[in-house]
Amino acid sequence: MPAQNIYDEPDFFDAYGRMRRSIEGLAGAAEWPDLRAMLPPLAGARVLDLGCGYGWFAAYAADAGAATVLAMDVSERMLDKARSINARPAIRYERTDLEAVSVPQGAFDLAFSSLALHYVEDLPRLLHKVADALAPAGVLVASIEHPIYTAPRRPGWASTADGGQAWMLDGYFDEGPRRTSWLGAEVLKHHRTLTGLLASLAEAGLDLERLHEYRPTAEDVAQHPEWEMELDRPMFLLFRARKPLSPV
Amino acid sequence: MPAQNIYDEPDFFDAYGRMRRSIEGLAGAAEWPDLRAMLPPLAGARVLDLGCGYGWFAAYAADAGAATVLAMDVSERMLDKARSINARPAIRYERTDLEAVSVPQGAFDLAFSSLALHYVEDLPRLLHKVADALAPAGVLVASIEHPIYTAPRRPGWASTADGGQAWMLDGYFDEGPRRTSWLGAEVLKHHRTLTGLLASLAEAGLDLERLHEYRPTAEDVAQHPEWEMELDRPMFLLFRARKPLSPV
Q1: Distance from B95 to chain A by nearest Cα, in Å?
Q2: Is A213 helix (H, G, I), strand (E, B) or coil?
């Protein structure tokens, strides 16, 4: 079925637009330095951006010398905003449902995706398409919500005996849809385990190179005391996987 | 500091001896089929077993044709038991503290460790020694308690609104010692994140090949209804890592 497109609902879109990462771009995304550290050289690179949102990364890649950036999103509102604030000659913004992406084969050096893949129901299919779209030795660099974060049937915190809080984890091995509340709307995500994610990468013929759980730095916590709870459970999982030089 | 050696405390040793995995050996360990699937061919292999316990795996490897098995444990009681029930000509049982292992270099095709590495305080040091001990293309196959399982400061479950239960996760990014209660004793474990484990493997020059979270099968749950809770959070993490053919 087509991907949920909650970003085209006006109230949600407005609420999303008030988030730090929407206003400040990459500088407002706490995990960005860790994700950036996984990127290959961008000068001359052909880049595919899956779930481009406002286009902050597409613009970053273009400014860093990327030859071309094909930036895709399911939301027309997102793309309108991206075209208005992050237009660059090297970027082509295109409306696409990630459940039914159609991209040229062997045409990209980097496939990038920031916090979008957990909205995709059929991730194995998408990863196969990404593998096809990459040139040999091309890489996929992505962030997703951590499986520990997507697992719970009713996400939330419990109080602990020592006056702290604990993330209530259940349903971990029950892979499938999760309906949660975010920015005042019901959001549909798709939970998969770490094992399931890695199996899907391997089945697509992509070799995992790096796997990293974002954690707030001491500086992050000093500036944003409310992030201290993010030390109690991993929220974002970042990874890099490479298409081998010779077909597997 | 030397590793905790709780297994030489009589009450704990007796309680451990009543566990299914102690009595039935590998067949009594639910995660064994998944771990076995990660093993390289054992015929002719030189095997190092880190934390061998009763010697069930050492005997399995010897019976599968391993050329030699050096099986190490910190507990004299464990080793006495292993020598009495799992003696084989190919096996040498040796008392060793995993915090201060001394093994010949380039001498093993397989380093194996079942549920022991989470007791090791200085895992990076041990992994460097394992990498030194492996011959080129040799592998480390290991199971550990999952980081989600070792993280909490006070491990336990909370009741959920839908009448189920949730694992109370906190302290995930606070790597270090955890004192928990098990089999009536206080056990000292060392929590590290998934990211931390993978970084230690990489720093030791070992390439991660597989990463797998044990989950009970439907058959497991039918036979042991109390394992159903293990579907709510991952308990064991299994992995295989390889020493490259050429030094890195």
Answers
A1: 35
A2: strand
CATH pick for A6-147+190-242 out of 3.40.50.880, 3.10.180.10, 3.10.290.10, 3.40.50.150: 3.40.50.150
User: What is the average pLDDT score of chain B?
Assistant: 94
Helix (H, G, I), strand (E, B) or coil at B159: strand
Q: Is pTM beyond 0.80 here?
A: yes
Q: Which of residues 148-187 of A touch B (CB under 8 A)?
A: 148, 152-154, 158, 160-162, 164-174
Tokens of B44: 């002719």
The alpha carbon torsion through A124, A129, A131, A135 (nearest 10 deg) reads -170
Residue ranges with strand state E in chain A:
46-50, 68-73, 91-95, 108-114, 134-145, 157-159, 165-169, 176-182, 185-191, 207-213, 236-242
Residues of chain A in contact with residue B165, where contact means CB-CB under 8 angstroms, are: 170
Q: Which ranges of chain B have pLDDT less than 50?
A: none
Q: At what angle do helices B194-203 and B123-133 cross, to 10 degrees?
A: 40
Residue B189, judged by CB atoms within 10 A of its CB (0-12, 13-18, 19+), counts as buried
Q: What's domain B6-242's architecture?
A: 3-Layer(aba) Sandwich (3.40)
B172 and A198 within 8 Å at the Cβ level: the answer is no
Per-residue pLDDT tens for B121-173? 999 999 999 999 999 999 999 999 999 999 999 999 999 888 899 999 999 99
Domain assignments of chain A as residue spans, ordered by start: 6-147+190-242
Kind of pairing, strands A134-145 and A236-242? Answer: antiparallel
> Could you tell me the sign of the dihedral formed by the alpha carbons of A14, A6, A173, B127, in that order?
negative
pLDDT at A185: 84
> Would you give the distance in Å from CA B29 to the centre of its chain?
12
Neighbouring CB atoms inside 10 A of B210's CB total 19
